[in-house]
Amino acid sequence: MSAVVEASHLTRRFGDTTAVDDVSFSVQKNTIHGLLGRNGAGKTTLMQLLTGQDFATRGDIRIFGEHPVENSGVLKNVCFIKESQRYPDDFKPRHVFTSAPWFFPNWDAEFADRLIADFRLPLNRRIKKLSRGQLSAIGVIVGLASRAPLTFFDEPYLGLDAVARQIFYDRLLEDFGENPRTVILSTHLIDEVSNLLEHVLVIDEGKLLVDQDAETLRGSATTVVGTRQGVDAFVADRDVLHRDGIGGLASVTVGRLTPQDRARATEMGLELSPVSLQQLVVRLTGSNQTETVLEQSA
Amino acid sequence: MSTLTQPTLDEARIDRPGGASNILAVVRLHLVNRYSVFAVPWMIMGGIFVVNVAVWWIIFASVSSEADRADARDGITYSGALFYIFVYMLVLGIQAVAYTFPFALGFSVTRRDFWLGSALTFIALSAVYSAGLTILAAIEVATDGWGLGGTMFASFYFGGADASWIERFGLYFATYLFFYFVGAAIATIYQRWRNNGMLALFGTLGIVLIAGIALVSFTSSWPAVGAWFDTNGPSGVIAWSLAPTVVAAITGYFILRRATPKN
Asked: Coiled-coil regions in this chain (chain A) (predicted)?
C-alpha cells in the first residue's frame, strides 16, 4: 500500500471564509474513497486544491509524492470530473471525446464508445443544448474512459436518471476490477454509493470530521429501539447521537456497541438496527452537537 | 502515514514542464472544432467582401466621369472592411481563455502548457490567415480592384497597392497577433479577478486615455503626435503594435499562472 494523495494541514481561505480548514489525510492506492459533506462544506475546493486548480493558503499536498500545482508529470495521471465543468462554447460531445486521448495517456476509445451507447449521448449536438443529465454523462464518460490512476468525481451525476446512475456504478466497479486505480467520489446520494466506498471522508464547514474505512464507519453507530424506559436504561451512560420518540416508544442512535452490549440489549428486549452511511452523515453534519460520538468511535 | 509512501518522494518539483507533446495537444485542442476556427472567419470575410463588391459596383455604375471615379477609388483605399475580421480574432482570443482554458484545466493541462500552446496556435493561425490575405491582396492589385477599382485587402493601412507581398504579410501578421494576444490577455484578467478585474482594467484604461489626451492638449503637442503617425506611416504604427502584443503575451502568462477557473 502506498499513499497516492497526502494532504497535511491544508487550508484555503477566501477573504474571511475558510473553505478548507487545516485538513490532513492520505489516500491509499487503488481504493474508492467517498468525500461526503453538505453543500458548501468545502468538497469542491478540496478537490481543486488536490488537482492543482486552486492554490492552498497553507499546508502541503503531495500527489504521487509530488506537488500537483503546474506539475504536468503528476497531472497527466489525474482526471478531475466536476459537476460545474465548462466546455468551449461551440463544442459538441464528439470534440470532447476526440481530444481526450491527447491528454489522457490511458484513454480507452472502445470503452468510451460503449459508454456513449450506454448513456445514449448524442455526439453531434452542441453541448449548450444538451440536458443537464447528458452534460453529466460527458463528464462520467471522460472520467471512466480516461483510466487515470487518480480520478476525482465531484458530483458527477447531477441530472442523471436512476438507470444512468446504475450504469455508472456498474461500469465503475467492473472497470475498477480490471484496471485498478484510485477514485475519489463526492456525492449527495450517499446510500446509492454506500456499497461502492471503501473509505469515507466527511467534511463539514471546511473541517475533516471523519476519515475512516467504510466498514468500520458503518458499525460505528446503532439505533436502539424499544420502550422508553428500556431504551433510557440502556443508553444512560452513552453518548446519544440522535433521539426520536413517540409515546412510550423511543429510538435512540448511539455509538459503537460491543458484543456484550448487544447481548444485553437483546436481553432487555430492545431492537438494534444499523445506521446507514447516509443517516450517519446527516447526523454528523446536520446540527451543532456533532463531533462527540464519532470521535469516540474513531 | 509518510512511512507508507513509496512513490518518488524526491524533492518537491513544482513547474515541471510538460514537454512539447502537451503543448501540441493544446494546439490541437484549439483547432479541434475546425468549423469555428477555419470556416467561420472566411465566411465572415466572404460576407464583407460581397457587400464591398456591391458598393464598388454601385459607385462604378453611378459615377461616369473618369476623374470622379479616380476620386472614389482614392477614398476606397482607406477601406476599413478588414477590421471586422480582426475583431473576430479578438473574440477568438477571448474565447480561448474564457472557455478553452477552464476546459483544458479539466483535462489536467498545466497553465504553462496551456498558454504556450495557445500562443503557438495564435502564431500559426495568424500566419495562415495572413498568407490568405496576402494572396487576396495580390489578386486585388493584379485585377485592378476586382475589375471595379475596389480596395479591401490592399488598403492604405496595409501598405496600399504598392506594398511588396512580404511587407503586406508582415502587416497582416502583426495585426492578427495583436488582436489574438490582447483578447487573450484581457480574458486572463477576467479569469483571475472576475468583474473587479474588468472594472479595474477598463477604469485604468479610461483614466490613462483621458490623462494622455489632457497631457497632449495642455502641452499643445497634437502636431507632434500627428507628425509621429505621419513619419511612421501605417507600417510603422503596426510594427509598433508588436510592443503591446508582446506585453500582452507576457502579462497574460503571469496572470493566468495564478488563475483558477470558477464555474
From this structure: none
Shortest CB distance from B9 goes to which of A55, A65, A92? Answer: A65
> Which site among A44, A72, A146 would you substitute to test the B interface, given the most B Cβ atoms closer than 10 Å to its Cβ?
A72
Name which of A71, A87, A103 is nearest B13 (Cβ-Cβ): A71
**A137 and A234 housed in the same domain:** no
The secondary element (H helix, E strand) that includes residue A6 is strand A3-14
Chain A and chain B share a number of CB contacts under 8 A equal to: 126
In this structure, are A283 and A145 located in the same domain? no
Report CB contact under 8 Å: B16, A71: yes
Cα of A110 to nearest chain B Cα, Å: 19
Bridge-based pairing of strands A3-14 and A32-36 is unpaired
* SS3 (DSSP) at A245: strand
Three-state DSSP at B112 gives: helix
- For residues A227 and A132, state if they share a domain: no
pLDDT tens digit sequence for A210-258: 999 998 888 888 999 999 999 999 988 888 888 888 888 999 988 888 8
The enclosing domain of A285 has a CATH number of 3.30.70
- CB-CB under 8 Å, B28 with A62: no
Specify whether A203 is located in the same domain as A226. Answer: no
User: Domain range holding A280?
Assistant: 217-297
Give chain A's end-to-end CA distance (angstroms, integer).
Answer: 21
What is the domain-level CATH number for residue A26? 3.40.50.300
What's the total number of domains in chain A? 2
More confident residue, A99 or B60: A99
* Contact at CB, B99 and A70, closer than 8 angstroms: no
B4/A62: higher pLDDT: A62
Q: Would the pLDDT of A297 be above 60?
A: no
Q: What angle do CA A291, A295, B1 make, to 5 degrees?
A: 120
A17-28 and A32-36 beta bridge pairing: unpaired
Give chain A positions within 8 Å (CB) of B9.
62, 65
Residue of B12, B108, B257 with shortest CB distance to A80: B108
Q: Identify whether the C-beta of residue A33 lies closer than 8 Å to the C-beta of residue A27.
A: yes
Element (H, E) at B237: helix B222-240
Q: What is the pLDDT of residue B263?
A: 56
Q: What is the ipTM of this complex?
A: 0.88
